[in-house]
């Protein structure tokens, strides 16, 4: 039985992870859960899964929960609590379902503890991919991708060497504006942006999907996870979202991973690896499937994708700057302080102003992140 910690248990990935564990109680045991501030949902999860440890990032919420629970569960608080949680020796695997850059420092702590990492957070790897992967190798920590696209690449690669790869195709649904003319982007509403045609996700990642920044971040994530140059990674619009990514090998053979658009499938594989466990999730009915569509993305219409490729070429601190500026811009958009078109405009301006450090350490990465956030806040007004 694997003992699991879930960071971000109240979000969509966290709840899907608990759904997988609920369906496979003999294989997995919840040891620890963390949330930002949603102690109502956390209480429900504690009642059902009986974890030993919980962590709440918000100090006031943590104090209230500690008072309510007494000594029945150990309640940790803030980032220090996350570090303590991921280093706990009774935990075998940590699911990183926290969104944004907040996952980076706890991720490094978990890696240094030699834990298996189920990584659903792409921003931490975008910020510090080379550093994270070097540490994972040093401490023999396995980084197991949870994003459906990265899981598909991982499974399609099988036991082949990365040097055998000619090309990787990252598939994308195209988001809610695939067929909307760019001339109408100025007037799109927040509500329209948050209506994703295929996936039910958190607000931030849903906005990233609409701008195609999510796919740009995945380009960087793919580079670092699989040691590939950006020119080997191609984005392919595939609105049916059945092929989650493909790997083309040097001999022209292409391996693809197909499954229903259900995040519980890659989550279960990351939790159970190297086993494949039986589940009752929906499969693909090929007799009812009439056709599949593929399109080349329009990087002029979706400039965030072009900006991500630029960061992939520049590397150093530039991916951290891209990520930070995007996080601030998306937050401003979600709070209706800027419009949809301002997101890529702000990211591009911040990237242009940045003085890149070629081979940064963690301190320099965090400094670049903080600088980019300040710049983006000023630009967002």
Structural features, described:
The model has no long low-confidence stretch (mean pLDDT about 95). The protein is of the alpha/beta class and about 375 residues long. The longest helix has 19 residues, at about 360-380. It starts with a strand and ends with a helix. The strands form two sheets. A seven-stranded parallel β-sheet has the order 4-3-2-1-5-6-7, with helices on both faces. A four-stranded mixed β-sheet has the order 9-8-10-11, covered by helices on one side. The protein folds into three domains: about 1-145, Rossmann fold (3-Layer(aba) Sandwich); about 150-260 and about 280-300, no CATH class; about 315-380, Orthogonal Bundle (Rna Polymerase Sigma Factor, Chain: A). The chain contains 15 helices and eleven strands.
Structural class: alpha/beta
β-strand number: 11
Order of helices and strands: EHEHEHEHEHEHEHEHHHEEEHHHHH
In the CATH hierarchy, the third-tier topology of the largest domain is known as: Rossmann fold
Low-confidence stretches: none
Major beta-sheet overview? 7 strands, parallel
Treating each run of at least 4 consecutive H or I residues as one helix, how many helices?
15
**Judging by the overall fold, what is the CATH architecture of the largest domain?**
3-Layer(aba) Sandwich
Q: Which percent range describes the beta-strand content?
A: 15-25%
User: What is the CATH homologous superfamily assignment of the largest domain?
Assistant: NAD(P)-binding Rossmann-like Domain
Tell me the Rg in angstroms. 20 Å
CATH class of the largest domain: Alpha Beta
Assembly type of the chains comes to: single chain
Q: How are the strands of the biggest sheet laid out side by side? A: 4-3-2-1-5-6-7
What is the number of independent domains?
Answer: 3
How helix-rich are the residues, as a percent range?
A: 40-55%
Shape: globular
């Amino acid at each position: 039985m694997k003992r699991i910690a879930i960071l971000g248990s109240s979000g969509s990935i966290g709840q899907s992870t608990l759904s997988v564990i609920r369906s496979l109680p003999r294989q997995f045991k919840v040891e620890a859960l963390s949330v930002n501030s949603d102690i109502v949902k956390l209480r429900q999860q504690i009642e059902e899964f009986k974890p030993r440890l919980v962590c709440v990032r918000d100090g006031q919420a943590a104090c209230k929960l500690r008072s309510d629970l007494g000594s029945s569960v150990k309640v940790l608080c803030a980032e220090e609590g996350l570090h303590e949680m991921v280093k706990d020796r009774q935990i075998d695997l940590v699911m990183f379902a926290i969104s944004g850059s907040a996952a980076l420092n706890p991720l490094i702590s978990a890696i240094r503890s030699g834990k298996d990492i189920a990584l659903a957070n792409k921003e931490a790897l975008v910020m510090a991919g080379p550093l994270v992967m070097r540490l994972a190798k040093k401490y023999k920590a396995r980084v197991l991708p949870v994003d459906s696209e990265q899981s598909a690449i991982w499974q399609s690669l099988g036991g082949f060497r990365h040097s055998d790869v000619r090309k990787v195709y990252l598939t994308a649904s195209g988001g809610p504006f695939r067929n909307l003319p760019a001339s109408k982007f100025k007037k799109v509403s927040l509500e329209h942006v948050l209506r994703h045609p295929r996936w039910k996700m958190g607000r931030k990642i849903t906005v990233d999907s609409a701008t195609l920044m999510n796919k740009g971040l995945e380009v960087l994530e793919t580079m670092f996870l699989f040691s590939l140059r950006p020119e080997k990674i191609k984005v392919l619009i595939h609105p049916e979202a059945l092929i989650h990514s493909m790997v083309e090998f040097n001999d022209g053979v292409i391996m693809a991973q197909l499954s229903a658009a259900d995040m519980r499938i890659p989550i279960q594989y990351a939790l159970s690896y190297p086993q494949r466990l039986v589940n009752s999730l929906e499969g693909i009915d090929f007799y009812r499937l009439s056709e599949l569509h593929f399109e080349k993305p329009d990087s002029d219409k979706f400039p965030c994708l072009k900006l991500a490729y630029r960061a992939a070429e520049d590397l150093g601190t530039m991916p951290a700057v891209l990520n930070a500026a995007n996080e601030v811009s998306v937050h401003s958009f979600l709070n209706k302080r800027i419009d949809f078109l301002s997101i890529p405009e702000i990211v591009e301006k911040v990237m242009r102003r940045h003085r890149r450090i070629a081979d940064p350490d963690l301190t320099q990465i965090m400094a670049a992140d903080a600088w980019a956030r300040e710049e983006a806040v000023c630009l967002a007004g």
